[in-house]
What we know:
By secondary structure, the protein is α+β, with helices and mostly antiparallel strands. It has three domains: about 1-70, 2-Layer Sandwich (TATA-Binding Protein), CATH 3.30.310.40; about 75-95 and about 220-283, Endonuclease Iii, domain 2, CATH 1.10.1670; about 100-210, Endonuclease III, domain 1, CATH 1.10.340. It contains 14 helices and seven strands. The strands form two sheets. Strands 1-5-4-3-2 form a five-stranded antiparallel beta sheet. Strands 6-7 form a two-stranded antiparallel sheet. Helix 5 (about 105-110) packs antiparallel against helix 9. The protein starts with 5 loop residues before the first strand and ends in a 5-residue tail after the last helix.
Amino acid sequence: MQNRSLETLACPEFDLAVTLDSGQTFHWEAHGTGFVGTIGEAPLYVEQRGDELLVTKGAAGIARNYFALDHPLDEICRSFPDDAAMSAARDFGRGLRILRQPEWECLAAFITSSMKQVAHIRQMSRAIRERWGQPHRLDDLELFSFPSAVRMAAATEQELRDCALGYRAKNLLATAERVASGAADLHAWRELPDSELRERLCELPGVGAKVANCVMLFAYERLRAFPIDVWIERVLKEKYFPRARKVTAERLRVFCDKYFGEHGGYAQQYLFHHARKATPRGR
């Protein structure tokens, strides 16, 4: 990107590359010494240089909000439990921030994530964007935003299956129809307490507890939400219940809420990123 088309944004306690590679979002692409993607309908280039970001001119405010640069990250990390697993994950993922993503885009992405690896989710996201998303020019690049629920509701299940969604196509289409019709008002749900928000999300096709907690954390900024997938379940059982022969999902849920507390979602993301990237069983 040309320097004249960029502006500077302070980003203390932030690691752009770690954050974008932590399994929260699936569409950012490396470009030169930075990354390109969209935030809503805004196409962006973003590059980190020390404690500063270079971002597309006019997009500093959007980037500051999306990357949650106002979160008191040092305070959040100091609130983590003082144990070996958590300390290792915190040190490994230093600078990782929880993004503020658009509700529908985040919900749709995680509906497609069921039983899929990150690389596959990225491929599905790209196929959906290129087929139904709005094209945007960024210098000599063409980027596609994530299509609205209305656009997705007009697709057919077979068209979605052609994007490698498999059985997820039916769920994504049914949820898109509910959101497009207003039966599921994702924006209005911002006013709901955590328990009711989780309940409403779980009523949508393709949404179980794990996906609901991901959407609560990454789109609704409910920082206590603690998604438990196979990676986190393995970490919890190995590190926190090493002698237990059987640990139920309910026991894990209650333990995580109490033990990791107010910033449990941040703790979960650090544990997840560390498990996925620092073990030989990488996703």
